[in-house]
């Protein structure tokens, strides 16, 4: 504990010294590069051309956190490259995704290297105005949950080695400011609730272990690259999800454990309603695994609070 207190004190001093040189504040962010899974993708396909449109294919039945971040809670005109892919894991060779066509974070970082690292026309980013956001792990933990051929702390450590090798690749291309998000309590999603309280509790423990390892690696990143980094934010999604789920009625969510099957593949309008269910916008879960845009909105707001330098549920790094 003492070591950590000393570390954060010295990092605090460091960041004061680095302010003018490299600290990226939210109000100066002009480029956002995003890596992740279905919680994060908007269907953008950079292989179809760097200028191909954001088709808005999200898992939230509306905008997702990236779109709220860059289009609602933005203080600047942000150019976003969302390379996320639905179903993504860190590396398909470590945790296979549900379909072989899914692009892992390793694949997404390869796309970054191929299309964006050279700072081409329409993506003339630089180290001081660009934020690299990574939200991954939901499917790494989820897809490997039933495996008996791994020892969990060790396997998650292998996952972290792979993830942070990708962060090193981004760093080598000039990335200096990072946003990491922890895995949310997907053990409270209908998909895992259905497997019974014991399985769900085990998964909650596994997510906590994954997140603890993520935290240690992000701290290592800030120590290792030290004053050469811009801003590094580790945002904890757990308190946001848990507070909303624990107080669902207060926040106007009609059901914290279930969803309405009629809506699970998306609805024609954001407030669509069928007989026997509340309007789709009043649910927390759209389907077995994905929260609605209302949740993404609250999450994005809290993330920008952290990025703007104010207390939110970020974990000190
Ligand atoms: C931008 O944000 C930083 C803190 O992140 C703050 O110090 C600065 O005053 C802000 N600039 C403007 C123009 O509001
Ligand atoms: C992305 O675009 C490329 C090139 O047009 C195409 O081959 C690929 O199938 C597309 N990927 C998806 C997921 O639509
Ligand atoms: C935020 O992004 C939206 C969508 O790109 C843009 O219309 C708006 O001007 C931006 N806000 C600011 C303050 O730049
Ligand atoms: C564990 O089993 C899964 C499912 O069969 C497989 O995909 C994975 O590669 C195995 N992992 C190890 C480390 O053996
Ligand atoms: C810390 O990060 C550096 C750079 O990614 C890496 O080489 C090193 O192995 C990491 N150390 C630990 C203990 O994770
Ligand atoms: C919430 O969803 C669960 C699981 O589908 C269901 O059993 C329960 O009746 C629902 N509760 C309400 C208030 O709709």
Architecture overview:
By secondary structure, the protein is of the alpha/beta class. The protein has a single domain, classed as Rossmann fold (3-Layer(aba) Sandwich). 38% of the residues lie in helices and 9% in strands. The protein is built from nine helices and six strands. It has a six-stranded mixed sheet with strand order 2-1-3-4-5-6, sandwiched between helices. α2 packs across α9. The two termini are 14 Å apart. The relative contact order is 0.15. The N terminus is likely disordered.
Descriptive key words:
about 325 residues; alpha/beta; Rossmann fold; 6-stranded mixed sheet; 9 helices; about 10% strand; globular; disordered N terminus; binds 2-acetamido-2-deoxy-beta-D-glucopyranose; GDSL
Describe the structure concisely.
With 317 residues, the chain is α/β, with parallel strands linked by helices. It is built from 9 helices and 6 strands, in the order αβαβαβααβααβααβ. It has a single domain, classed as Rossmann fold, CATH 3.40.50.1110.
Any chance you could write out the topology, listing elements then pairs?
Layout lengths: L1 H17 L12 E6 L28 H7 L7 E4 L22 H12 L13 E6 L2 H6 L8 H21 L4 E5 L8 H4 L3 H29 L6 E4 L2 H9 L46 H15 L6 E2 L2
Parallel strand pairs: 1-2, 1-3, 3-4, 4-5
Antiparallel strand pairs: 5-6
Helix pairs in contact: 2-9, 3-5, 5-7
